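Q: Now give one record:
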Amino acid sequence: MKTALVAATTILLASCGGKQTAALESAITQSGLNPADFDTTYVDEVRGEKEVKLYTLTNHNGMEVCVTNFGGRIVSIVVPDKNGNPTDVVLGYPTAKDYFPENNQSDFGASIGRYANRINKGQFPLGDSIVQLDTNNYGHMLHGYSRMWQYIPYDAEQPDSSTVIMTLVSPDGEGKFPGEVKVTVTMKVTDDNAVDITYKGTTDKPTILNMTNHSYFNLSGDPSKPITDHMIQINADNYTPTDATYMTTGEIAKVEGTCFDLRTPIVVGSKFDDPALAGDGEPGHNGYDHNWVLNTYKDGKGDDTKVCATAWSPTSGIQLDVYTNEPGIQFYTGNFQDGTVVGKNNVTYPKSAALCLETQKYPNSPNVPGWPSSFLNPGEEYYSHCVFKFSIHK
């Protein structure tokens, strides 16, 4: 990233002069983004024309997080590596229009809703009825299809230099989900180098709600190389097994003696040849795309003061610790990235260019009695909390 930033500065100096150069340089973020490239509008079929912008959040340590209200997405996270160099650790695109669905189908950095992850055959019970959603993934509903919130502009305000607050109203029946749902996503950069994300929501009819952030992390700062050399640890004695369509079977199984035992750190790519990670059996689709049952969640309550997952890059030394009140975390290793996507700084992302750590309810939880509930009723408030905290691995 350092090379790209130097190149961007050189271009600015060569093409501009005097005060104009200074103004342009001050507008460019640490990650090389130009806020003007996000200053646009998007016509949503339900909400009409909406404003899209880039919001830059900072703390006193120089950490920088850029967020666009289009899909409530984290576009960049810049933190120091082991040598003190500012390093962008998430995948993304350089302009707002790159995120528009007609240009790319991507979850990069998005605030996912209404329902993160999969629902079996797109169906779930509600009272005496069965709600049928559209399906988009091996015959299942994935990430709220067909009206996915990652392709809807949130309303946004930035009350201070470290915080952005994004709100969205989803009308009754949008995406075939019942109830008018109002959600607020608050992202804050804290002085201990963390991105603190809080989700809140209400509904006027019984419905389901399950949100997450879908940032793709490459902690080396070089997304041209896969994260197979990263280290991963998840604080979970159990996981939820899946079938060949990546749908949970309804079981909760012990991780002990399996490739899902991440209670002690392992190299991310070290188990990719395990038959249990073959997924649909298609060549190149092997890897993790599973939910872990977090030890930090007990008796119906999650302890968001304890680390539930940790990843780090041996190259940069950057470590990510995740905290949440949610019962589960989906660990995904970019198995479906095909090596054709070109992102920020004109970098082509290879297969497994990043890993995701998505805090949420278990996949298909509305259909499995006894699992932590994703149902939301009028008068109740949905609340979910996730923290991505960065440091140098010791």
User: Anything to note?
Assistant: The first strand starts at residue 40 and ends at 44. The chain has one domain: 30-392.
